């Protein structure tokens, strides 16, 4: 069987890490089987629709490299891929269910429904809709007369509906506890339940892999598949991403917008690697692996349900590993330069920039930290913090001589600079802790900087000597 998966985000706000997470597993499942991965936009909830959100979803998927095989952008044989462009389709299928007796027209007003819900809650059962008992002829007469009506699923009132989830034991739902969900609203717009099932069927989706919060909707979808006479897809409900306290991930406790991670300078490879570990473990215990490797060894059945914690500190660790161990130095420099250019930071992509990048890569986890840690590389107007000023004051007497020694080194490499410091300290009877800190403080304005000989070599002789002479005179 060819595997067809999909994600179906709603354009209602920021592109969510949960969409990226579910997208990754659907992408891998489809592509490891030579199947298709579909991106569908579920935009029928016009009250929550945000016009800019759709494009941002596409940008997120492009950044992650999870390119769908069919979507609103590239089209495909089962389009259109926006539900708002499939509007008439849903009404036809809803009326088909009415004709077959699996759905009915309902005429209750919002006020009547509110009273019915309150009564049902008091009596401890699901809401009973009076329109269910109307004859088909009477209901059609009222519709033909122009009376406003929704179409509701006629859920069975006896027996049970069983969800056979690939990741769980069978889940049994008593049909008497399933209410008659609205399938088509009075304005002609479908609800999630109808549109989701119809689109999955017409787009040949074989595996519905989505978050576990949709488990309670699945019996309704199973009833709809049965009502249409369609075979069910394979169901697999992924564990929800959690905060450290095991609550559902939320922007109050964690950044949930993928755009935030993009703007902070996280790498898409690190994000995908991290998301792959949310409920799944590499069979060989590898922590660092790329998308191709994940696709090669991943099995959906191996997903565990323990509530994976979306730990930003762990994601930062992954990102640092990619900067230092996976990407080449040239690739890090290129991506960093592109990132800074996107933030309107104009620096030449030259040997000096690459040298600074090489020095700072062990000291940053994400690209957004780079400029805060390197101001003294780009300007002579850099701040001197309190600790650095104290070091300058304590070693100011040595700075002129050290500046002169550095100025007269035959070559200005890290090895020669280090040897000069050792020779100077021995000659003066000083410990290196009295010689090197004031130099570091003078040239960087901080004691938090890379290895001093490497730092000075990167800055270059002219900058170093000028800064030491200026500090000696201050």
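-> sequence recovered:
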């Amino acid at each position: 069987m060819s595997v067809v998966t999909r994600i179906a985000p709603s354009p209602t706000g920021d592109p969510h890490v949960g969409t990226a997470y579910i997208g990754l597993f659907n992408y891998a499942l489809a592509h490891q089987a030579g199947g298709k991965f579909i991106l569908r936009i579920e935009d029928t909830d016009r009250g929550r629709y945000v016009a800019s959100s759709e494009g941002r979803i596409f940008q997120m998927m492009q950044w992650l490299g999870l390119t769908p095989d069919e979507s609103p952008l590239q089209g495909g044989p089962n389009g259109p891929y926006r539900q708002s462009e499939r509007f008439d389709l849903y009404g036809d299928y809803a009326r088909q269910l009415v004709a077959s007796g699996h759905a009915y027209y309902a005429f209750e007003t919002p006020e009547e429904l509110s009273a019915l819900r309150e009564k049902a809650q008091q009596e401890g059962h699901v809401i009973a809709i009076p329109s269910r008992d109307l004859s088909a002829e009477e209901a059609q007469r009222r519709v033909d007369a122009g009376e406003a009506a929704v179409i509701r699923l006629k859920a069975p009132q006896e027996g049970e509906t069983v969800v056979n989830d690939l990741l769980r034991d069978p889940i049994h739902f008593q049909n008497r506890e399933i209410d008659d969900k609205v399938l088509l609203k009075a304005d002609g717009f479908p609800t999630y339940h109808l549109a989701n099932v119809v689109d999955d069927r017409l787009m040949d989706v074989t595996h519905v892999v989505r978050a576990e919060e949709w488990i309670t909707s699945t019996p309704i979808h199973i009833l709809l598949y049965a009502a249409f006479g369609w075979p069910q897809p394979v169901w697999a409900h992924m564990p929800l991403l959690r905060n450290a306290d095991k609550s559902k991930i939320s922007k109050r406790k964690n950044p949930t917008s993928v755009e935030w991670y993009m703007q902070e300078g996280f790498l898409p490879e690190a994000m995908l690697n991290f998301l792959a570990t949310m409920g799944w473990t590499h069979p060989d215990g590898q922590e660092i692996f790329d998308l191709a490797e994940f696709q090669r060894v991943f099995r959906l059945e191996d997903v565990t349900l323990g509530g994976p914690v979306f730990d930003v500190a762990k994601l930062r660790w992954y990102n640092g590993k990619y900067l230092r161990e996976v990407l080449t130095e040239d690739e890090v420099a290129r991506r960093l330069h592109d990132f800074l250019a996107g933030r309107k930071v104009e620096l030449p992509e030259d040997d000096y920039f690459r040298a600074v990048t090489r020095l700072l890569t062990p000291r940053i986890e994400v690209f957004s930290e780079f400029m805060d840690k390197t101001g003294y590389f780009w300007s002579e107007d850099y701040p001197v913090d309190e600790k650095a000023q104290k070091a300058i004051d304590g070693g100011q007497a040595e700075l002129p001589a050290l500046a002169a020694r550095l100025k007269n080194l035959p070559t200005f490499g890290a090895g020669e600079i280090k040897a000069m410091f050792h020779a100077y300290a021995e000659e003066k009877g000083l410990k290196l802790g009295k010689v090197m800190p004031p130099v570091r403080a003078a040239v960087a304005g901080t004691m938090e900087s890379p290895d001093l000989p490497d730092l000075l070599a990167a800055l270059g002789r002219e900058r170093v000597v000028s800064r030491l002479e200026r500090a000696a005179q201050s």
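The two ends are 78 Å apart (CA to CA).
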